Amino acid sequence: MARTSPPEPPVNPKSLCLPHLLRHEGRSVSACRASSIHSEQLFFEMADRLAEDGWRELGYEYINIDDCWSAKQRDAAGQLVPDPKRFPSGIKALADYVHARGLKLGIYGDLGIFTCGGYPGTTLENVKQDAQTFAAWGVDMLKLDGCYSSAEEQAKGYPEMARALNTTGRPIVYSCSWPAYQGGLPPKVNYSILAEICNLWRNYDDIQDSWESVLSIVDWFFTNQDVLQPAAGPGHWNDPDMLIIGNFGLSFEQSRSQMALWTVMAAPLLMSTDLRTISPSAKEILQNRLMIQINQDPLGIQGRRIVKEKSQIEVFLRPLSRAASALVFFSRRTDMPFHYTTSLAKLHFPEDAVYEVQDVYVGKIVGALRTADNFSVVINPSGVVMWYLCPMALPLQPWHVARQQAPGEGFYPALV
Fold first, then answer.
1. Out of 145, 205, 239, 241, which one is annotated catalytic?
2. 3-class secondary structure for 41-107?
3. 8-22, 130-144, 250-264, 330-344: which range is least confident on average?
4. Where are the domains positioned within the chain?
5. What b/e string do you get for 213-239 counting C-beta neighbours within 10 Å, with b at 16 or more?
6. What is the CATH superfamily name and number for domain 304-391?
7. What pLDDT does 18 receive?
8. Which residue ranges does the record assign to the Alpha galactosidase A C-terminal domain (predicted)?
9. Which of 144, 219, 258, 395 is deepest in the core (most CB within 10 A)?
10. pLDDT at residue 267 above 50?
């Protein structure tokens, strides 16, 4: 089955998704936000902010429309049409506006009778027509949800939409919600098939604007990392859902943690916040250049949790290109800053290597670190310390990228 691919891999989109429709996948229908907010003017203004406030230059190039953009009925020809009051200029005009600013437009669809918000869905007989409609409008990315559809319809419809999008001749990034409706894990979910038809996919529940929601997603992804980590790579990504940094549910430390953990997961960076009113601190987190460089690393290897301490400290590692690595030290504690002591040797780095260590959030070089050296980091409650390690000297013996390990085996940094 063909995969809808963008012009240049790896595809790991960075974008703005507005508005943020909170719902439970396949379980209930939520009301959309007020029509006066969810309108074309909002997207015009967000496109301006992406283009003018430094986001585009960092790679945040997609602006995505969520559910509830369409009229309640298809037109006489059976085509989807935008709500005439909220999008009076039409989606094509919005796409033209976005493209003129060097950006790309994403849109929402649903493989079912209705969308999760109760708007017209894409049934199997509408797949080709809707793909042609999106392409004619100049859409660059499609998220296809799965409310009001059966497992059998999803098994037919998601691959069929991939073929239909390819047939249009327009590069359209394809985001599938298919695995989220099937529990996210084998045997119901076949990640080899998903990687052939989708560029990214939602595996698990929708994120809510709360720290508890972030932790539940982190727990699910890293508990199941032996299945999920090998499935990710250039052009086909696990999607733990949006970044809620800049909204109301996360503290400063928790915001830094979500950004770091999503980066370790090689997650698409999909913001859901108002760029017209975003705080300087949230903007600084989302625009961290080294963080984005790590997130977009061309090897596309998803990181893993390699340590889980009784002290509620966890360590995550992501292998990067040029023999570099990203380490995240994460505290689940809520009482006070914690002094955590370890060594690269204990984290299974190769013997006799020396690394230059850079603090990702501080932006400064910490110093040179030998594998055998003990070191300490101070991690704030619900916070992270994130390091970028670049090798200064490596051992002579060859090392290889460890992409897949059986449960219980060690995970080693990538040295290529």
1. 145
2. HHHHHHHHHHHHCCCHHHCCCEEEECCCCECCCCCCCCCCCECCCCCCCCHHHHHHHHHHCCCEEEE
3. 8-22
4. 16-296, 304-391
5. bbbebbebbbebbbbbbbbbbbbbbbb
6. Golgi alpha-mannosidase II (2.60.40.1180)
7. 52
8. 300-383
9. 144
10. yes
Distances (CA, A) of 89 to 95, 102, 216, 365: 10, 20, 40, 50
Return phi, psi of residue 236, to 5°: -155, 110
pLDDT tens profile 393-408: 776 444 433 333 332 3
- CATH class of the structural domain 16-296: alpha beta
Q: In the annotation, is 206 catalytic?
A: yes
pTM of the model: 0.89
335 is catalytic: no
d(CA 26, CA 180): 9
* C-alpha 269 chain-centroid distance: 5
Mean pLDDT score of the chain, rounded to an integer?
Answer: 89
Other Cβ atoms closer than 10 A to 34? 10
Mapping DSSP to helix (H, G, I), strand (E, B) and coil, where does residue 254 land? helix
Mean pLDDT across 301-317: 98
User: Over the stretch 194-242, which tens digit does the pLDDT of each residue have?
Assistant: 999 999 999 999 999 999 999 999 999 999 999 999 999 999 999 999 9
Those residues with Cβ within 8 angstroms of residue 79's Cβ, 6 or more apart along the chain or in another chain: 129, 133
From the list 88, 413, 52, 72, the residue with the least C-alpha distance to 80 is 72
Q: How far is CA 403 from CA 10, 324, 379, in A?
A: 17, 15, 28
pLDDT attached to residue 393: 75
User: Which residues, including other chains, have CB under 8 Å from residue 265's CB and lie 6 or more apart?
Assistant: 221, 238, 240, 302, 303
Given this model, what pLDDT does residue 16 score?
66
Catalytic residue among 66, 110, 130, 206: 206
Strand, helix or coil at 390? Answer: strand
